[in-house]
Design a protein that fits this description.
Layout lengths: L2 H15 L4 E6 L6 H10 L13 H5 L10 E8 L12 E2 L8 H20 L4 E4 L7 H7 L4 E2 L5 E2 L7 E8 L18 H5 L5 E3 L2 E2 L5 H7 L15 E3 L3 H4 L19 H5 L2 H5 L3 H7 L9 H12 L1
Parallel strand pairs: 3-10
Antiparallel strand pairs: 1-2, 2-7, 4-7, 5-6, 8-9
Helix pairs in contact: 1-4
Length: about 300
């Protein structure tokens, strides 16, 4: 095996060793199919007040505008499905935010992977992306055969469902490319039927401005009273569409120590949440993604629901 075939195998083996669930590779080129979909989504204001989604339209669709001479997009999945959940009847936090903020955890792994590529293969230039830059990660992961886009617009796989993070390395190295997999949602509408705010406006289209994750994390102003009593106790993010998905019966718990939650988080009652102080907030969510809402945002969310 020569050149790109050998390089591809090396990269995929190292990704596995670093703890990634899977790795798929696509040719770095303009995302033809995504362009009209993104344009329509923005035109219909489905991004709400997430104005940053309007920026860098071209870069979102063309990886060569992010990395000079880009040849390949390496997509990676990292499992975050927890072995334990919060107690019953409490205010709920999305499972992805139980442990340390995934940006730190994944950035470190991507840095190691890029370093490995440079040491083993030679002078390769690239950039790592963890949903903090204009990269349509779900589209790339689907293109790279890591899963299909579900009706809830999350990436889905038959083997492990959808509880994982997606990240990319865009590099100027030619590799062997993977092919997309087929859609296995069939006639199922579990996610559409279960969404508390009816944010999945049609199969495969989520109105971001109606999503509980948007209201509890992205929205900086007051939450509109029109959605009062629709949050089903979610105070940071929402997992409903994933929790009801039949494919998530196959989720297996992660083995990433940094994603283990602080025990206090799992045992907090509604009363604990209502009485949370800034000190407790800092301690329990020290390096967690929950810090994105800040203490004031979390209090706003709790007060809105209770």
């Amino acid at each position: 095996m020569h050149g790109k075939g050998r390089h591809t195998v090396l990269i995929k083996e190292e990704a596995k060793r670093l703890g990634f669930l899977s790795c798929g590779i696509s040719k770095a080129a303009f995302l033809e199919e995504e362009a009209p979909r993104l344009e329509k989504w923005l035109k219909n204001s489905m991004h709400g007040e997430m104005h940053y989604m309007e920026n860098h339209f071209d870069k979102r669709l063309d990886p060569t505008k992010l990395v000079d001479g880009a040849k390949s997009v390496i997509s990676l999945l990292l499992n975050y499905y927890p072995s334990e959940s919060q107690i019953q009847d409490t205010f709920k936090v999305s499972k992805y935010a139980y442990g340390m903020d995934y940006h730190f955890v994944i950035k470190e792994k991507l840095k190691n992977l890029l370093q490995f590529i440079q040491e083993e293969i030679g002078e390769v230039h690239g950039r790592a992306f963890v949903d903090s830059a204009p990269v349509l990660d779900k589209a790339w992961a689907a293109k790279s055969g890591l899963g299909w886009m579900g009706k809830h617009s999350n990436l889905l796989t038959q083997k492990v469902g959808s509880f994982y993070f997606i990240a990319e390395l865009i590099v100027d190295l030619e590799l062997d490319y993977d092919a997309p997999v087929t859609d296995h949602c069939g006639s199922c509408t579990a996610c559409i039927d279960a969404c508390p705010t009816e944010a999945i406006v049609e199969p495969y289209v989520v109105d971001g401005s109606k999503c509980i994750s948007y209201f509890t994390i992205e929205l900086k102003n007051e939450i509109p009273t029109s959605v009062k009593d629709q949050f089903e106790d979610w105070i940071f993010g929402c997992d409903v569409c994933q929790d009801v998905c039949p494919w998530n019966r196959f989720s297996k718990s992660h083995d990433e120590p940094l994603f283990h939650p602080k025990p206090e988080l799992l045992s907090m009652t509604k009363k604990d949440w209502e009485e949370i102080t800034e000190d407790v907030f800092r301690k329990v969510f020290q390096k967690s993604a929950v810090k994105r809402t800040k203490f004031s945002g979390l209090k706003r969310n709790i007060n809105f629901i209770k």
